[in-house]
Design goal:
The chain is α/β, with parallel strands linked by helices. Strands 3-2-1-4-7-8-9 form a seven-stranded parallel beta sheet, sandwiched between helices. A two-stranded antiparallel sheet has the order 5-6. The longest helix has 26 residues.
Amino acid sequence: MDIKGKTAFVTGGASGLGEATARRLHAAGANVMIADFNRQNGEALCKQLGSRAAFAEVDVTKTETVKAGVELALKTFGAIHILVNCAGSGWVGKIADKNGPHDMDAFKKIIELNLIGTFDCTRWAAFHMQSNQPNEDGERGVIVMVASVAALEPQMGQLAYAASKAGVVGMTLAIARDLARPGIRCCTIAPGTFDTPLTALMPKEMKDGITVHIPFPKRFGRADEFAALVQHIVENAFLNGETIRLDGAVRFPPK
């Protein structure tokens, strides 16, 4: 899909990987709807980007805000052609330890945010993508979801996060097949450890302990490298139903 002139709906678009993605797609000529619960950051980013950028206050755990955000994108730009699901968070906790079993509310919260939130945004965007005019390949839309290497090789304490991201991986091919007839593709990126505002808070010793396991390049990923892969997925019409690792060949040990 040619990005220029299309509209991208980016959840979690006000910071981290979502912000880098919004910036890159905007630079490639897309209209960008930044969907995030952080109004201050989202509006500030829109101001930086200038024209072809708008903000929607969206909490992906609240379906009414997801629906409203999608409708605002349609009202503002006329259509949604690209959805990038970057909204999400993590949690650390073992299935059980000396203090008791895993916190049930915490598990539900991570599933609701990372898995159900991704599903909800995807169902609404996909519904409206079906009405887009097809390009020469018959393509009407592209959906990019975000999992994690933890979906495939979780470390100790990543149970809730791994379960939520494994669910995203599990949905990928099913969504691609469900939406094949209207010409909507779906791929998932499974990132390793990236430089984001969250990882910036890590002490140097913790960062070094992670980096030692990354074969090459021996550093955290850069947000624009993630955004570059999003752009490639959108532009490469034969990429569909696939989960792509972006991790420097890392395979983390159990802990």
